[in-house]
Amino acid sequence: MLLKDKVVLITGGSSGIGEAVTRRFIEEGAKVSIIGRSIEPLIRMKDEFGENIITLQGDVSNYKDNERAVEATVEQFGKVDVFIANAGVFDGFAKFADVSPTALSEAYDYLLDINVKGSFFGAKAALEELQKTNGNIIFTVSGASFYPDGGGVWYTASKHAQIGLMRQLAFELAPKIRVNAVAPGGTITALSVIPPLRSFVKTVDNETKASKIKKRNPLQLAQMPEDHVGAYVLLASDQSRAITGEVISSDGGLSVRGLG
């Protein structure tokens, strides 16, 4: 029960890595509030976890929706100890040279509004409550935050931007608030390609995806969402009170893959 009595707000908490983190946090004793776009998984999560969870439909690129999520969390659970900016979308490895200027612009607005602006907005909306609890912020970043070919240019740029945001906030918000990140590697989820780029990429089944992921990391793991949750638990807990401005890479060892 490492998170007993903690109150956590997670964006994108009803699917993929966000859902796995939500489930583990509740197991560890936390009360969790999640915001997502699709109503069906939110209803399913509420039915399953009852009074331990709040589910809110919203768009993280809309500041008011982030503000509403914070207000609902405080109204129900009394505080916010941890904010996790997890909501994200993917560009499907679309190639810059192949995409039309119109689609390029539409993809930029769509993807960076969610991946980057959503992180800005969520952190800002939660800031006042986190100051009251000496809380912490965790960003879901990516191997693409450090290396090329973890996605296309839109996704890679967005994940690099989140690292800059995390580090600057860790500097500005100390000593009251800790700010860190988890960088998952290639993970088998239902993450779909954003609409502006769907005609420029090929759909890949999970078996093919898993095979490619295994070949890219030294541990030869096609990671599942559950493989990453321990890093979030550590950063959200009081056991990491001396850690800020850091990234925990949960990627099968991408940084040591060498020249082979």
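That was protein one. Protein two is written in the same sequence-then-structure order:
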Amino acid sequence: MVYASTEPGYHHAIAGAASGCLTRFICQPLDVVKIRFQLQVEPIKKNSNSKYKSMIQSFQLIAKEESFRALWKGHVPAQLLSVIYGTNQFYVYTIINQHLETLEYLKEKHKTTHFLAGSLAGCFATITSFPLDTIRTRLIAQSTQSQTYKGTLDSCAIIYKTESPKGFFRGLLPTLLQIAPHAGLQFGTYEIVKDIKFFEPDADIPEDHHHHKKIGIINTLVAGCLAGLVAKTIVYPLDLARKRLQIQGFEHGRKGFGNFFKCNGLVDCLVLTAKQEGVPGLFKGLGPSQFKAALMTALHFTFYEQTLYLIRSFNETE
């Protein structure tokens, strides 16, 4: 299981890294479209003059204007982000859970421990990987008409030189405000749903001699899908604000994408978005984001559980 494990923490770190790598590669095109939607000031409607009008149209337009490979734009920093994030998140989650479950007043409060451990693990993983999140957002956000960055290393050098190290952490506050409840809800929902017998009876799920139940693939897919949907929908406006804050000072790289959204902080970003685009503007790109969150979380937990099971099986054969 993800929790109450006595095995080495690095097993969870390895499983988290593998899960992050595989999941990112599959879901990167959805992330590209989601970020393009979040950064577009104009409405996302079929009968509008906006650049991006729907998910399918966006996929087709990006592939046509920027090549099919552009759907994986920013993939290198995104891949590094996912590996670092996945490694730290699952490792810290496991360690914190182990400590919380030793506390007498939390021993029987599993939902509380899952939420707290998930929130703290999410915050730690976010801080350690945030510069890569800023870089991949910039790479995805830039237009072909005014390509500012040539790649990951080039973007690092330019941001450091022109914006100072602080430039790598633009939007960190709304991200932490978002990730704490998001990760807590994600892990909490997952832990509740994954053991429901409706999906896969316990009789079909073997345990190893360490009493680690192998979580069935159907369980992890369904539990992960629901966890992703619930968590993402609740905190979505903060996710949108994070992306808009990360491109502040990057007007020159957004030519051809419509009006540039300017703001001076988290509250100003949320207020201006609601004022200029209406309350629905705070949920711009929610559709592809929900689809991505459901798919990505389902795959993330599934790859994690299966990799962890393989590591246990390999150690038992030695």
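Residues 110-141 form the longest helix (32 residues). Keep this in mind for the problem set.
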